[in-house]
Amino acid sequence: MRCPSCGMTTSWSLTARGDWGAAARANPAGLLLFVQALCTAPYWLWVGIRGFRFQSKAFAFGSLALLATAFLVAIVDWIAKVAG
User: Fold this and answer.
1) Residue 16: pLDDT over 90
2) Assign residue 52 a region: left if phi > 0, alpha if psi is -120 to 50, beta otherwise?
3) Residue 22 and residue 34: Cα distance in Å, rounded?
4) What gap in Å lies between CA 40 and CA 6, rounded to an integer?
5) How would DSSP label each residue in the chain?
6) Model pLDDT, residue 68
7) pLDDT grade, residue 1 (50/70/90)?
8) Burial class (CB in 10 A: 0-12, 13-18, 19+), 6
9) How open is the CA angle 76-1-83, to the nearest 5 degrees?
């Protein structure tokens, strides 16, 4: 049985190169997680430099929503590939 994250590294490397279509075919959840990492990196850099976090419900909700979506996409993709 294949791993649910198979193709994740390939998806990340293709996304980093700008080939979003191929990245989505390799593992669509990888594409979503890369986008989330790209969006949250400035925040975590700020936290690391300044030593404190700012509270933003919109940021937290958006980040959590994207993470939950990526998780669901990974599970659906995995089920589809195992069943097919």
Assistant:
1) yes
2) beta
3) 14
4) 24
5) ---TTTTHHHHHHHHHTT-HHHHHHH-HHHHHHHHHHHHHHHHHHHHHHHS-----HHHHHHHHHHHHHHHHHHHHHHHHHHH-
6) 92
7) low
8) middle
9) 45
| Distance from the first to the final alpha carbon of the chain | 12
Give the separation between CA 70 and CA 78, rounded to whole angstroms: 12
Joined together, the tokens standing for residue 69 give: 């979506």
Domain limits of the chain?
A: 8-83
The model's pTM: 0.76
Residue 29 corresponds to which tokens in the numbers above?
């959840």
